[in-house]
Amino acid sequence: MTATLLARRVALSLLVGLAGLTLVGCAELERQGRIFTAPLPPTRPAAPRTDNRSTVQHRELVAQFGGEYDAPAAERYLNAILAKLATVSDTPGQPTYKVTILNTPVVNAFALPSGNLYVTRGLLALAGDASEAAAVMAHEIAHVSLRHSALRAEREREAAVISQAATVIQNRQKGEEVRSSQRLSVASFSRQQELDADAAGVRVIARAGFDPYGASRFLTALGRSTELRAALYGKKKSLDFDIMSTHPSTPDRITKAIAAAREIGAPGIGVADRNGYLDAIKGVAFGDDPTEGYVRDRIFIHPRLRFTFTAPEGFLLENSNEAVFGVREADNEALRLDSVRLPADESLEAYVGSGWVDGLLTSSVRKLDVNGLPAVVAVARAGEWNFRLAVIRSGEFLYRLIFAARALNDQADARFMESIKSFRRLAPYETTDARPLRIAVAVAAPGDNIDAMARRMVVPNRPVEYFMLLNGLSAGDALTPGEHYKIVTE
Predict the structure, then answer these.
(1) Contact, 208 vs 134, CB < 8 A?
(2) How many angstroms separate the first and last alpha carbons of the chain?
(3) How confident is the model over 294-307, as a mean pLDDT?
(4) pTM beyond cutoff 0.90
């Protein structure tokens, strides 16, 4: 890990820690709509379910992942794949699965015993062809067919019983050894479940006529997605229910998926149907839902809450459930923006001095007018880190900006203050201009290369890297004239 990457992680963790000192206010805000990325109501009515338990599970999962996303062409295409998988399933008596697309940019998929199968629009963007999508769905169905959830629950209950027994016999040292051994057993069993589901999925998609190497290609794309995220934001773990938290993509899994495919045949067998898949997903939204806040270069815009701000030069921004985070590519600097309701009858100065942050320099607290909005700015110090703070009142909310730097010199502070002063309310006409980014399909012309295609991309950061990720390409790869490639446009 580079020193710069480590510094970014430290700065971000400090920002999270500072903001965590007001969990009551944040929790209240979460209940009222998770201010930066609140799930939208379903974009279409949920399909009726007859079983009450499955209905509850369906509603909870849909609510947790932003509601249902309406993409009829993609849904029809995925359901056609499911129909082919069903004819060659390892468990013919299993329920008939039907896909629901979830309105979130995170990459994930689930299957329930009731026959509900879920994929996120983020996963649709990452998958490269029909065989990759088939591999993901076959993998999830295999978890159900192999009773992995039930088996995992049994092992966890077993671990709890052994832990209690170890305590009862009052052999503390032995008890700790047993507990540690059992935890390792559960973890190992979970990894084995993933490998078993991978192998089962490869077999099923091959029998259905799809390219069995689609599984390893998708696992490779998952790993690359995580690496790009780490390079951009200095963190490997997603804040938003990413598939990597439950389905880790490891080199070992990729190697075993390739080996399972080789048992079936050499590369080049089976159907990938890249063009058909891309045609089905074109027009699907990419990235943040614009009504819940979105990033364009250094600018963050929230149409529903009607505000915008611009990060300092060189910052990369990311919108999450918790807040807007930012890191500076070249220096050890970071930022965080979140919101809370201002307590009744409390001034901005009183709020800043109420213990919201440790290390506040009370002499630095001063009032400020930010584009007609009342604000208070201050400085705090924690160890070797320095923080420029701002709280800005707009309506019933306080918007809290925290900038972190190892050295808060005049130059850095001037950049931070300029960013604070960029915060403003949106005019009514500006809130109607929010348009989601969407997946589009471009056909490579003779002479086109990765850089030329990347110039057509509209993404917050690093268009070249995102173009390569979405299309399974590496630096230096040549494009094939007439071939179809995913790009992101407004």
Answers:
(1) yes
(2) 35
(3) 89
(4) no
